[in-house]
Amino acid sequence: MAVQASLPRQAPAAFHRSTRGQTLGKLLLTTLILGLACLASLTIGARPVSIPTMLEAVTAFDAANGDHAVVLSRVPRTVVGLLVGAALATAGAALQGIARNPLADPGILGINAGASLAVVVGIYLFGLSSASSYLWFAFAGAGAAAVAVYAVASLGRDGATPVKLALAGAALAAGLGSLTSAVLVSSQETLDAFRFWQVGTLAGRGWDVIGAVAPFLAVGLVLTLVTGRVLNSLALGDDVARGLGQNVPLARAVTAVGVVLLCGSAVAAAGPIAFVGLVIPHLVRLLVGSDYRWILPFSALLGPVLLLGADIVGRVVLPPSEVQVGIMTAVLGAPVFIWLVRRRRMAEL
């Protein structure tokens, strides 16, 4: 106590500035790591390309040069990885905030399952064959699943508690997965069209897919990133958030719209990819603490690092074939998540 009394009155402010400066430094370092991940995505694969050759391909493309063609084919793949990784990680962080549950993510709460079922129905009934045509079905399925989870969890006296949201999401995900399987086993053509997309992949995605999902991803990211202060209030409980002047239903609705846009776009572009939205927010909390004003942008930067890293490993682990990124994120993400869960302080939001 005597030591505290002897500190100058400006000490807390100075400490706050130091912490903010350290966080900005971490943000710059994270951005640099993301840039390195993009560089590796363009140069590493079954056919490695040197950095000078990659720069030549980007600045002075030569159609007769095979290495240039390889680099050019990896550019949209890398861009899709950036968009989908940012979308899934940011959506996972926002869901954990509005649900006040460290296990919340688009997969566990059934949102990805809803999008997947809607895409399967679109393939079965309307013969959809491209990621851009999956988009609206993915949005509809993700939105319907989110509404259903919240409606089921809201039943009862206590309303939508974190535990009830997790249980309702897990039950809905299981049910929607069963319906998806029922549709698939009844149609061989639907199964053939769906099975490669279902694994989750960045391969074969072109600029048409990027152009279709990018506007919705941008809107979803903006809606979600601006809710950091609101999520900080919700983390204290609904009553405290109301006492701080927050419109809790409106705040949840705006965040939910952003999450649906992010999840629907990501699923339409690359398929249902697991663990990104679950692991990255926990890793970010380890780096910057529990302030959602920092958690959300850090998640948007680190999500693509995990996704692109998994994609790179999948390209080189079993040459000349590839392991799809949806498999690799589970293989790489599960041990990381187990390690994070074992750190007890990471289990709290």
From TrEMBL:
Keyword Transport (UniProt): yes
Gene Ontology biological process: siderophore-iron import into cell
CDD domains named in the record: TM_ABC_iron-siderophores_like
Protein topology in the membrane: Multi-pass membrane protein
Keyword check for Membrane: yes
Predominant location: membrane
Alphabetized InterPro entries for the sequence: ABC_BtuC-like (IPR037294), ABC_transptr_permease_BtuC (IPR000522)
Keyword list, A-Z: Cell membrane, Membrane, Transmembrane, Transmembrane helix, Transport
Parts of the chain that traverse the membrane: 27-46, 78-95, 107-127, 134-153, 165-185, 206-231, 251-280, 292-317, 323-341
GO cellular component: plasma membrane
GO MF annotations in UniProt: transmembrane transporter activity
Compartment(s) of residence: Cell membrane
Family: Belongs to the binding-protein-dependent transport system permease family. FecCD subfamily.
PANTHER family with a match to the protein in the record: FE(3+) DICITRATE TRANSPORT SYSTEM PERMEASE PROTEIN FECC-RELATED, FERRIC ENTEROBACTIN TRANSPORT SYSTEM PERMEASE PROTEIN
Official protein name in the record: Iron ABC transporter permease
Species for this entry: Arthrobacter pityocampae
